[in-house]
C-alpha cells in the first residue's frame, strides 16, 4: 500500500502540466513513440520509478517529481515487482494466463489494446506460471494510460529482472500516440531512415573515395548498396544520384 499523498498524485490533477511540458521522448512520424533504450534502475522502495510516457520524463520517486506519471514499478519484494496505477492506467494480464491473477509478462508482438484485460495496480511476480517473470531475464508488460488528450492510449515496457525482483531495470518503453489503437509488445515503430547510402567511409560525402570502394568491390558483395548481393553499375548509380554532401 502506498501513502495517501502518493495516491493523490494521480494523473488527472497534473494533466495540464503534462500538456505544457515539451516532449523529450524520441518520436517517429508513425504512431509508435519509443523511449529508446534507457536502462534505468528501478529503485527498490515504496516509491520506485515513475514514468510519464508522453513527456519522456522518468525519475526514481516520489511521484511528485514526475507530473502526470503513467507507469510506476516499485516495491521491495524479492519475488515480485509491484506496478502502481494512476487513474485511468492499467496493467495487462497475459492473455494465456488464467483470470484469477494479474499476470503481466507477455510475449513479444502480443497485441495490447481494447480487447486486452487490464488490472489497476498489479504485480509482476517471479514464478513458473504463464505470464510470470523469471530471475535474470527480461520481460514485457503491457499497459494503458490516459494521455494529455484525456483518452486511453496503449503501450508496453521492457523490464529486466536480476537475481531477484528487487534488482530490476526499465530497459525501454513505447506507446501508441493514436488514442485507442492497439500496439504490439516490442514494437518500436519504423526503423530510422537509412544513413547516407554509399558514404562508405562515413566522412559525410558521397564522392570519389566512396566510388573507389565500388570499383574495388566490383562483382562481389563488398560494395553492395541495393542489397542484390553484388556490386555493379546499379550501386554506382546510388552514389552518383546522391553525389556530394550527405543530407
Ligand atoms: Ca564518403
Ligand atoms: Ca548491388
Protein architecture, described:
There is one protein chain. 11% of the residues lie in helices and 28% in strands. With 247 residues, the chain is α+β, with helices and mostly antiparallel strands. The strands form five sheets. Strands 1, 2, 7, 9, 11, 12 and 13 form a seven-stranded antiparallel β-sheet that branches. A three-stranded antiparallel β-sheet has the order 5-6-10, with no helix packed on it. The protein has helices spanning 4-7, 15-20, 208-216, 233-241; strands at 32-34, 40-41, 49-52, 57-60, 71-74, 80-85, 90-92, 111-112, 118-119, 122-125, 137-146, 152-161, 168-176, 183-184, 205-206, 244-245. The protein contains four helices and 16 strands. It is elongated, with a radius of gyration of 23 Å. Mean pLDDT is 88; it is low at 4-29. It has two domains: 4-184, no CATH class; 205-245, no CATH class. Bound molecules: calcium ion (2 copies). One calcium ion (CA) is lined by residues 224-226, 228, 230-232, 234-235.
Amino acid at each position: 500500500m502506498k501513502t495517501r499523498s502518493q495516491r493523490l498524485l494521480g494523473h488527472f490533477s497534473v494533466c495540464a502540466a503534462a500538456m505544457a511540458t515539451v516532449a523529450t521522448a524520441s518520436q517517429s512520424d508513425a504512431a509508435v513513440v519509443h523511449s529508446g533504450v534507457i536502462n534505468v534502475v528501478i529503485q527498490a522502495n515504496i516509491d520506485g520509478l515513475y514514468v510519464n510516457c508522453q513527456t519522456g520524463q522518468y525519475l526514481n520517486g516520489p511521484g511528485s517529481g514526475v507530473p502526470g506519471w503513467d507507469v510506476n514499478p516499485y516495491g521491495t519484494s524479492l519475488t515480485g515487482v509491484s506496478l502502481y496505477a494512476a487513474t485511468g492506467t492499467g496493467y495487462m494480464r497475459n492473455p494465456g494466463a488464467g483470470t484469477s491473477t494479474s499476470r503481466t509478462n507477455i510475449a513479444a508482438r502480443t497485441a495490447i489494446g481494447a480487447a486486452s484485460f487490464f488490472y489497476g495496480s498489479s504485480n509482476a511476480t517471479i514464478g513458473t506460471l504463464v505470464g510470470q517473470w523469471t530471475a535474470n531475464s527480461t520481460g514485457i508488460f503491457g499497459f494503458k494510460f490516459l494521455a494529455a488528450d484525456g483518452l486511453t492510449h496503449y503501450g508496453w515496457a521492457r523490464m529486466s529482472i536480476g537475481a531477484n525482483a528487487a534488482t530490476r531495470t526499465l530497459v525501454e518503453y513505447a506507446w501508441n500516440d493514436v488514442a485507442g489503437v492497439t500496439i504490439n509488445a516490442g514494437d518500436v515503430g519504423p526503423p530510422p531512415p537509412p544513413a547516407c547510402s554509399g558514404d562508405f567511409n562515413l566522412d559525410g560525402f558521397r564522392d570519389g573515395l566512396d566510388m573507389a570502394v565500388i570499383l574495388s568491390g566490383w562483382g562481389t558483395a563488398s560494395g553492395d548498396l541495393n542489397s542484390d548481393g553484388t556490386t555493379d553499375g546499379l550501386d554506382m548509380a546510388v552514389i552518383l544520384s546522391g553525389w556530394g554532401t550527405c543530407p
